[in-house]
Amino acid sequence: MPEPYPRRQRFSDLIPLRNPFILASGPPGRHAEGMIQFGRTAGAVVGKSATLHAQQGNPQPRIARVGQWGMINWEDLPNPGYKAFAEMIAQAKQESPAPIIGSIGPLESVDEQLLIAHAFEDAGADALELDFKWGAGFGDDLLSRLTGAIKQVVRIPVIVKLSPYIGDIVDNAIAAEQAGADAISAINTVYPAMKINVDTGKPALSFGSGGLSGGPILTIAVAAVYRIYKATTIPVLASGGVTCAEDALQHVMAGADAVQVCTAAMIEGPEVFTRLNTELDALLSRLGYSSLDECRGIAHQTALHVPSSATAKPKN
Ligand SMILES: Cc1cc2nc3c(=O)[nH]c(=O)nc-3n(C[C@H](O)[C@H](O)[C@H](O)COP(=O)(O)O)c2cc1C
Question: Coil, strand, or helix at residue 123?
Fold first, then answer.
């Protein structure tokens, strides 16, 4: 069966993935050792988002568990700054069997973003991921300007990572594609979310609220991937809520080329990718598929009521 909305190219044509699971940007990718360890089991590894200067991040506690597979966090990008990060990428590139993707934090200055992009490309990063906390219609079309500027100066692929809570994620994905992005990654954490410790009566996070991730956001992420896949022609990387192979297959059936995992990787460690790959092989053979390519986007052949615009509201 032909793919419902064919891509211009597959993500694995941009960078060769060792398997369909990618370590998403987050705490495991903050150090070279983490990138190397996860690079032994993941298809590729994304580093923690870097900023121009070193940042301590928010005071502890800045991460809290929500149920078995959920988390809220507001870390505020603790990282050693882009120069030290570029050195860690260079080290990880030497020792990790998996490709390394450098993540650039949400900056407002094109010049700062270009500095980091150059440094990461020179360090050997296989691709860049731009962590956007702005939408296409936010301010002065920052997403389009930053993406376009980076695409003009780097040779490695550029992935635009979108947040679910800023404008319409589909409009932002289209703007990213038009600005030259090679792939979209969706979604980042769902903000704001809050957990209150009933023993103390205080919010579990030092800053009160944070972004929700892990199991609880799977359905939101699948809908985002589904809508973005339909509206664009570049590869979509799913990110959100994956804790087992069935979750990952939902993303692929919605149209994802590959699947990023952060929260489950933090909870389970590098072994999560070994488990997910083993489970996925078993699931595909139980369902009678010989490869993921046979499943990509097939949910589009049956679903009728997924809105193409975020303004469409269900009447319940
Ligand atoms: C503690 C924590 C830190 C994160 N830091 C970043 C970050 O620096 N940059 C980024 O793009 N995404 C960051 N994320 C978002 C993840 O990469 C991922 O998109 C999101 O958590 C959804 O995937 P998941 O449900 O598998 O965790 C972070 C997530 C968590 C839980």
Answer: coil
Alpha carbon distances (Å) from 228 to 177, 237, 239, 293, 300: 11, 10, 13, 18, 12
- Spans of all domains in the chain: 11-301
Q: Determine whether the shortest distance from the Cβ of 239 to ligand 1 is under 6 A.
A: yes
CA distances for 202 relative to 17, 63, 205, 207, 212, angstroms: 43, 14, 8, 11, 18
110-146 pLDDT, tens per residue?
999 999 999 999 999 999 999 998 766 655 688 999 9
CB contact at 8 A, 251 and 21 = no
Q: How confident is the model over 81-116, as pLDDT tens digits?
A: 999 999 999 999 999 999 999 999 998 789 999 999
Tokens of 175: 């703007």
**Does pTM surpass 0.85?**
yes
Token pair in block for residue 41: 């089991």
Q: Which of 51, 213, 250, 276 to mutate to test the pocket of ligand 1 (most atoms within 8 A of CB)?
A: 213
Architecture in CATH of 11-301: Alpha-Beta Barrel (3.20)
